[in-house]
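Recall that a protein's primary structure is simply its ordered list of amino acids. Everything else, from secondary elements to tertiary packing, is in principle encoded there. The following example makes that idea concrete.
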Amino acid sequence: MRFMSLVFVAALASPAIAADFTVKASTIEDRKAVIATVEPVHQLVARARLGGVIVALKAREGDVVGAGQEIATIADQKLALQIQALDQRIRSQQAQRDQAKSDFDRIQELQRRGVSAQTQLDQAKTALDVAERTLAAMQADRGVIEQQAAEGAVLASGAGRVLTVPVAEGRVVLPGETIATLAENNYILRLALPERHAQFMRAGDRVLIGARGLQSDAGDVRREGRVRLVYPEIQGGRVVADVEVDGLGDYFVGERTRVWVSTGGRLALVVPAAALYQRAGANFVRLGDGSEIVVQPGEKSAEGVEILSGLKVGDIVVAP
């Protein structure tokens, strides 16, 4: 069960008297400061599709690349030799096809004159068909090798920033070997909270993000985010959640920052900060009847200052 304690919120008693507030009870959120890590939504891996030698690296760590951009070029010298050999065989087969075509045309003309038999024409037609199909097969084989050579270009599968390039020019790589890892441009904050907070985390919850760095405090809140996903598995006693925030593109992947997440609701006394004043080291508020009350302030929030003691529901608070 979600734990609820008493909170009192000061509200306007009358729109005509802007400085008078009537204290009443209202539920507010408790927030806990935790550390979040900047992570890409997806981490992409550019792999070698062809075994060979890296002849060119066209990206390095930190570069921003677009989808389909070439990152590296891999060459296999055996493919070039195979293409040369096929080219010679294709030329030879073209000559055989031309000879078969010439024989077929001559026999067809003789058959038209009644000099040649139909059997000879059929044999010439068959020889021509075989020569043409053999030539087409050789040309298809050459296209396969050309496609294999084209696969030596390692392309980025999506737009993002290059994180690592664990290879160098001149290195021999195998098919499937990692050439570079990339982080997609869309970054999120990843939280790991103790499992006792799992019941309070919901997709769509509001999260407050502090100033960049780990030295920020609650007064340094710069922006808001929303819980994008709460993972349904608890690992090592912690529940993991992703938070969507605008403007994380200039952060480092793995950079940590402070955030405040909701850990349940409670009730407390809150008055506008302008209603509090200090005298002789004590904090006071003035009531509607003119009397002064010593109060114990607590946590500050956007609604005002929480009052731990000194006020009760129904009191009229006047800003000095």
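The mean pLDDT is 82. The radius of gyration is 38 Å.
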